Amino acid sequence: MRRLALISLLALSACAQLAPRGPDAAVMTGPKPAAAAAATPVAPLSGGFVAAANPLAVEAGLRVLRDGGGAVDAAVAVQAVLSLVEPQSSGLGGGAFLTYYDAKTGKVTAYDGREKAPAGAGPDLFLDAAGKPLPFVTALLSGRSAGVPGAVAMLAQAQKEHGTAAWSTLFSDAQTLATDGFAVSPRLAGMINSPRVPQNVAPDVKTYFTKPDGQLYQAGDTLKNPAYAATLKRLAAEGPSALYEGPIAQAIVDKLRAAPLSSSMSLSDLKTYRPRSADALCRPWKVYTVCVPNPSSSGLAVIQALMMLEHTDIGARGPKDPVAWTLLAEAERVMYADRDRYVGDPSFVTVPVEGLLDPAYVAQRAKLIQDTAGPAPAFGHPKGAPRVGVDATREPGGTTHFVVRDAAGDVVSMTTTVESIFGSGHMVGGFFLNNQLTDFSFSPTEKDGAPAANAVAGGKRPRSSMAPLIVLDDKGKFLAAVGSPGGNAILSYNLKAMVGLFYWNLSLQEAIALPNIVARGDNFSGDAEMFGPEMVAALNARGVMVKTGQYEGSGLHGVIMRPGGVLEGGADPRREGVAKGL
Predict the structure, then answer these.
(1) β-strands 288-292, 517-520: how paired?
(2) How far apart are CA 569 and CA 579, in angstroms?
(3) What is the DSSP letter of 23?
(4) How far apart are CA 73 and CA 96, in angstroms?
(5) Four-residue CA torsion sign, 82, 84, 85, 87
(6) Which of 39, 44, 108, 546 has its CA 20 to 30 A from that of 149?
(7) pLDDT digit string (tens) for the chain, length 582 residues
């Protein structure tokens, strides 16, 4: 019965990720995700540690750590396996953000492997002949939806700078699984068999997930991917250039140019892709320091919300108090109002980071947080803010998050994605290509004529909600790492976990397993059955209109250092992941 309940949960959680999120996104409803409400705490750990959304990926990371590799080395192995066993979420054809803590120096570095638009892309990329935005699914399944993938290049740069193992040794687990086959998980099977996944009509998706007898793969079936094994063999031998030059690069270009609404992607676009790295964006909060990637990541929004909540009494309340959840929801609405207006690729638009995180501005915005929900808050006017239009990006949740800590104390917090379920539905070399460019605003301007900060431009990176967090203690040492998939709800999921952990003093597993609430503009959603009817009624009475049957498919994973040097891990029971240490 417990396994049946888990399979039911995973299928429902999968469906929760299918609808694009945005101001017009439909709220997902369904039966109670019972297993999430009965999470089992993860035992304290010591030494090396991995938390990820699939046990096979966790084992690959732990194998690297056992062999003496570091956190970034293990991250390469984890991503290689996730690309195979969780292709609905991330892969070699996608992008990622990685926040890295160096135990020797105490420095936190942010790596940006966000996909970018081909040089030939313009503001009309997703407009039809009449200048109207294309239907989302039409854009999704087109060649135009794919950006130049960045995850491999980013991991290669981080591994070159911080790795201790040979690059060529990091793909063996994934190669073996691709060659010998792996058991299809319930979550993956739910995606493959769902009529609600638009990509399931794509020829590459149908071919890959159809067995020789003409039936679709089911949970427990063995799926082999020799093409992916061959790609990994080349990648291990040649390094990241194997993906960005040569036959794999040519296959990517050919695939996208042959697709409906063909892409302008060129070999030059692939060859010239470069990841970004810089000091992470860090700000003091309470007695801690919170670090996130720089824009085009939206991590700054989580920091802003945490700072705003310091002006409330949420810390004196707890998860059984409807006022506490109302304060959280109201902070989210303010957070999204500013994020949606201002965050984009800083190489193309001015992102007023300092203004948004200025304590005086934060205090002013915090006044909008009340114990009842009023009208949707408008965006603010921080110092240095440009004139840009509100963004209407629809951001699905085909994403995953994992955390690695090695024996030396170095930590990786990485959120990685192919954007939607199975990305664009186009496959080369045994992996799916992303549809990340649909993270741009389809319309380049707002109704008032103001340009959208997240409008399409050649070479530009779309805004991302991915926000892998690292928290330092009052001495500047590593304290915690957390992150989640979930489209634009990532910010709400991460914020909830931080509130549970640092305001309500829960264990990490308890904080992760808390119900989610997502509040953006006039839209509210939450894990209604986990809250229970009394809490839902109390929230509704305060204007937080969570509806019976709603649920949220977060995928939080994390680790925190407890007194005495003991690691405590957490894995979201809504997905299939585990937290495991050596």
Answers:
(1) unpaired
(2) 6
(3) T
(4) 16
(5) positive
(6) 108
(7) 333 333 333 333 333 333 334 322 333 433 334 344 334 445 566 679 999 999 999 999 999 999 999 999 999 999 999 999 999 999 999 999 999 999 999 999 999 999 999 999 999 999 999 999 999 999 999 999 999 999 999 999 999 999 999 999 999 999 999 999 999 999 999 999 999 999 999 999 999 999 999 999 999 999 999 999 999 999 999 999 999 999 999 999 999 999 899 999 999 999 999 999 999 999 999 999 999 999 999 999 999 999 999 999 999 999 999 999 999 999 999 999 999 999 999 999 999 999 999 999 999 999 999 999 999 999 999 999 987 655 555 555 579 999 999 999 999 999 999 999 999 999 999 999 999 999 998 988 766 677 888 899 999 999 999 999 999 999 999 999 999 999 999 999 999 999 999 999 999 999 999 999 999 999 999 999 999 999 999 999 999 999 999 999 999 999 999 998 889 999 999 999 999 999
Measure Cα distances from 362 to 382, 457, 492, 498, 523 in Å. 9, 31, 18, 18, 23
Tokens 């909060």 -> residue: 285
Q: Specify the pTM.
A: 0.93
DSSP state of 20: P
435: amino acid identity, one letter: N
Q: What is the CA radius of gyration of the chain?
A: 22
Contacts 24+ apart (CB under 8 A), 247-250: 248/428, 248/429
How far, in Å, CA of 188 to CA of 219, rounded? Answer: 8
Catalytically active residues, by annotation: 399
Closest CA to 52 of 556, 560, 443, 541: 556
Domain boundaries, the chain: 2-277+393-581
Single-letter amino acid, residue 101: Y
> In this structure, which CATH number among 3.40.1080.10, 1.10.8.50, 1.10.645.10, 3.60.20.40 belongs to the domain 2-277+393-581?
3.60.20.40
Instruction: Name the token pair of 122.
Output: 């313009």
Element (H, E) at 270: helix 267-271
3-state SS of 501-531 is HHHCCCCHHHHHHCCCEEEECCEEEECHHHH
Q: How far apart are CA 27 and CA 40, in angstroms?
A: 28
